[in-house]
Amino acid sequence: MTTPQTLLQRIDTVQQEALASLNSLCNVEEVEEWRVAHLGRRGALTLALRDIGGLPAEDRPEAGTAGNRAKLALEDGLGQKLETLRESEAARLASENRLDVTLPGRPMLQGRLHPTSQIVRQICDAFASMGFQVVEGPEIEWDHYNFELLNIPRDHPARDMWNTLWIDQRNEAGEYPMLLRTHTSPMQARVMESRQPPVRVIVPGKCYRYEATDATHEWHFYQVEGLAVDDGITFADLKGTLYEFARMLFGAERKVRFRCDYFPFVEPGVDMSIDCFACNGDRAGCRICRDTGWIEIMGAGMVHPRVLEGVGYDSSKYTGFAFGLGPERIAMLKYGIDDIRHFYANDLRFLRQF
Ligand code: FA5
Known about the structure:
Elements: H1 4-22, H2 28-39, H3 44-51, H4 60-95, H5 115-128, E1 133-134, E2 140-142, H6 143-146, E3 165-166, E4 178-180, H7 186-194, E5 199-208, E6 220-231, H8 235-250, E7 256-261, E8 266-275, E9 294-303, H9 305-310, E10 318-325, H10 327-335, H11 348-351
Parallel strand pairs: 1-5
Antiparallel strand pairs: 2-4, 3-4, 5-6, 6-10, 7-8, 8-9, 9-10
The protein binds adenosine-5'-[phenylalaninyl-phosphate].
């Protein structure tokens, strides 16, 4: 027969044992089994509480209070155990880098082309539409291609026009034959060596110069080289092609100016300017053209006969023109960028504007 003392004892034992066994449970399934065994319809505590009804009326309040306290203790322990298991499961998922499909999605950052890439593509597209083929060449170049074949022999003062980064590796003669190319012009000779006229190529690529940087000079920058060689090419072809290019990139109303310039690998040599699209010739106080009304955008000229002969072309039969322009400077003009050093400073506030 159930007495108040044995029932109080039973309730106490159920509580002690249940709470003690809770510690050893390892997962939610085991916790559920525990709940059913103690608090379920036929659980140990539930059955003990049911027996309270069989006690004399004066003993029931004490047993009822003890029973409720035990029930609350078990429910409290159950809640804490579930919380502990949830935390350790989350930590395990995080440490195993497992996918938690319940987390909210992270927005994907959308990338875009660097402003130099954008302008290089525009330049190449413009020349491709006039029949030029895009080719690329090595950034580490032989002295032979960067200078010798371009009519700039060793010890010629014209080498001073390009401050050069040499590769620290001597040949048997004790010379340094390799360098980081100072311009894309070595590709003129490489292309002509590999094919016969007609040649019409455009060469985008990176160049390097041992140069103090300022607002318009970087020590590494891009150039786009152009070369056209065929039977009967004249200076009029050079002018027409470059004029068309300037209009495609800067607008149909642009004017173009050619002035004499010196590059050892062309004769005659010119620099080409466009009339200033910022002030439209008004000049006064114009930051872009510095009050001149003109903006220089590239060097160009008729390919020197020595360059043609150096690659085995017959200079009495073939003529050609070549040009080289700086895409960053063109982007600066087109988008009003005041310092070339912004291009490669990796500042997203600058890059996101394009
Ligand atoms: C040359 O490099 C010649 N190879 C161009 C050429 C090709 C002339 C074919 C004739 C025939 P120059 O050093 O001027 O020339 O450079 C050409 C362009 O490269 C410049 O107009 C400028 O836009 C760009 N450039 C030159 N140096 C730098 C620099 N330090 N930083 C940024 N851009 C530069």
